[in-house]
Design brief:
Elements (H helix, E strand, L loop, with lengths): L4 H9 L10 E5 L3 H12 L4 E5 L11 H9 L3 E3 L2 E7 L6 E12 L5 E5 L5 E4 L2 E4 L42 H4 L4 H16 L1
Parallel strand pairs: 1-2, 1-8, 2-3
Antiparallel strand pairs: 4-5, 5-6, 5-7
Length: about 200
């Protein structure tokens, strides 16, 4: 009853049998993967689809037109809400949710969601799709201790995509944050020209 967002979308794209017909689905997250997974589940015949996001609609990193389209299609949003636990033994029967309020500012300059005690409730679902927490893994850059990072966690680059370490370039999500494949490929081409120069 738990199907990770990227795997769900990958399996659908590869034509694998993904059974959501008639199921109640909850997708956790506010980015492009979450909204895409929710809209895909609805198109595949889910009876009800919910998006659970711990911040406000205005803070969702997904593209506004995608969020608007999801709402128009009937996907139900639960803002300032966070999952606490999956419910069920052999299979998911629900997800326990807890309301959040905005607290102090975090390192990224956004107000941090804080749980509201006593606000827990259970949303009945058959399938839970987590679509959160995708971030660049910087541990593999151990030899590049002198790389500089932006507040958003991306690598600092010059207009030619050179990093603060001589001879090291960064492109795509590492430099842009979550973006499109087209933008990443374009930057890959730009890096190739910069390295050649």
């Amino acid at each position: 009853g738990v199907y990770h967002g990227t795997m769900f979308l990958k399996d659908v794209a590869l034509g694998k049998k993904v059974d959501v017909k008639g199921k109640r689905v909850a997708v956790v997250g506010g980015g492009a993967v979450a909204v895409d997974a929710a809209r895909t589940a609805l198109r595949l015949g889910a009876s009800k689809v919910h998006i659970v996001y711990r911040r406000t609609r205005g803070e969702m990193p997904a593209w506004e037109e995608e969020v608007h389209a999801a709402a128009q299609e009937g996907i139900q949003f639960h803002f300032l809400t966070n999952p606490v636990a999956a419910i069920g033994t052999d299979h998911v029967t629900g997800v326990k949710l807890q309301a959040q309020k905005l607290g102090e500012f975090d390192a990224g300059g956004r107000r941090k969601p804080v749980p509201m005690e006593g606000s827990e409730y259970v949303l009945d679902v058959d399938l839970l799709i987590p679509a959160i927490g995708q971030a660049m893994q910087v541990e593999c850059l151990g030899a590049c201790q002198d790389l500089s990072f932006e507040r958003a966690g991306t690598i600092t680059v010059s207009p030619s995509l050179a990093t603060t370490r001589a001879g090291v370039f960064a492109a795509g999500d590492a430099a842009l944050g979550p973006a499109t494949v087209v933008e990443a490929v374009a930057q890959g081409n730009q890096v190739a020209v910069a390295v050649d120069n």
